[in-house]
Specification:
Radius of gyration of chain A: 13 Å
Structural class of chain B: mainly beta
Distance between the termini of chain B: 32 Å
Number of strands of chain B: 11
Strand content of chain B: over 45%
Helix content of chain B: under 10%
Strand content of chain A: over 45%
Oligomer: heterodimer
Radius of gyration of chain B: 13 Å
Amino acid sequence: GQNIDQPTEMTATEGAIVQINCTYQTSGFNGLFWYQQHAGEAPTFLSYNVLDGLEEKGRFSSFLSRSKGYSYLLLKELQMKDSASYLCAVRDSNYQLIWGAGTKLIIKP
Amino acid sequence: IAGITQAPTSQILAAGRRMTLRCTQDMRHNAMYWYRQDLGLGLRLIHYSNTAGTTGKGEVPDGYSVSRANTDDFPLTLASAVPSQTSVYFCASSDSSENEQFFGPGTRLTVL
């Protein structure tokens, strides 16, 4: 079966760095996405990785290792507005997205 | 309108009733999707459409139907609602199945 695993919840301090991990087992791989979802709102696109390595976009970076079935999202200089759920999704061999349950990130002052 | 709109925002429905959730996008995206989001679970794909005139079944299609008569609209119909269909429903679109998806604001549906 297909499976995406992420921690359910994480807590971090304002101004710090946090790494959210995602491991996956899917039928085929055609890219990995990270989305941010604030409570009561729609998911919004953060990053996309299809090749191994690190993609940096401002305070957010995303890493992929296809051989390990592993990705992480790195958030630097945390701000209170970063409190949200972070969703990992893998595009499978049918080009459909398989979603993890999301990681709720709580930022404390 | 800009982006994707969904209607209604929320709805309480009696079991056995028929309900259509509306989704409209103005980005001229070819692909559209319907997901449900339940607490503790990831988004689950109900139905999708890669282009106007075509539809496909996702992971959890039972009890739902869709149509794609034109590029902009992708309604989701519950023929006879059941309490297990209580969920938040998100419509999404992308300019192809290879690119990121853009989400509508969601419809919160409660079936009693």
